Amino acid sequence: MEVQIGNRLANVELISKEGNKVVIKIDEKVYDIDFVMAENGVCSILTGDGKSYNAELKRSDDGRSYLVNTHFNTYPVEIIDSQAKYLRNRKKGESGELQDHIASPMPGKVVKILVNEGDRVKAGTSVIVVEAMKMQSDYKVTADCIIKSILVSENEVIDGNQTLIQLAPDPDAKAE
User: Suppose 82 and one of 4, 132, 142, 144 were both cysteines; which one would form an S-S bond, judging by CB atoms 3.0 to 4.6 Å apart?
Assistant: First the structure.
């Protein structure tokens, strides 16, 4: 998953977890830490090289954004999962133009295909469910369209940015 800390975007991967012992990879560097979370949102972090840190985590209502307070600084932190990344990429094309395909921004597995080739679908309709990093995401179309072709099957393992479904404009859709 991606985590945005202030203006920095980091790739974070959980490698293993056993009790309080956690091994994570941030970008290309691996960290072996001991992580203890208290009930009031304060956590204690002890790194493999003996450094100790305390932080207070304040979670927003959406559950994806936090304010992390340390002794000296406060950092806004946002967890960017595959759905958020997909929506961010889709918003780039929302200036009235029809998207011509659905693609997953990261590798994963097709869980369910919700449409058939030739189906007419309305804007906002979920067309495919993909699981990536143990999270399922529904991918939706941004405009009325026709399912031109489905290039994957259920349970298929997919690559990041692989085209999953091709779309075509619906000639019968009413322009607003």
Answer: 132
3-state class (DSSP) for residue 76: strand
Reduced to 3 states (helix: H, G, I; strand: E, B; else coil), residue 145 is: strand
CA 93 to chain centre: 18
What's the pLDDT tens digit per position in 97-130?
557 888 887 788 999 999 999 999 998 899 999 8
* Alpha carbons 90 and 102: distance in angstroms, whole number: 9
> Two tokens at 138?
């529904």
Query: pLDDT tens across 65-90, in order?
Result: 888 888 778 888 888 766 666 665 55
Q: Nearest 5 degrees, angle CA 34-CA 36-CA 42?
A: 130
Domains in the chain, ordered, with CATH? Answer: 2-80 (no CATH), 83-169 (2.40.50.100)
pTM above 0.70, yes or no: no
For 168, the token pair is 């075509």
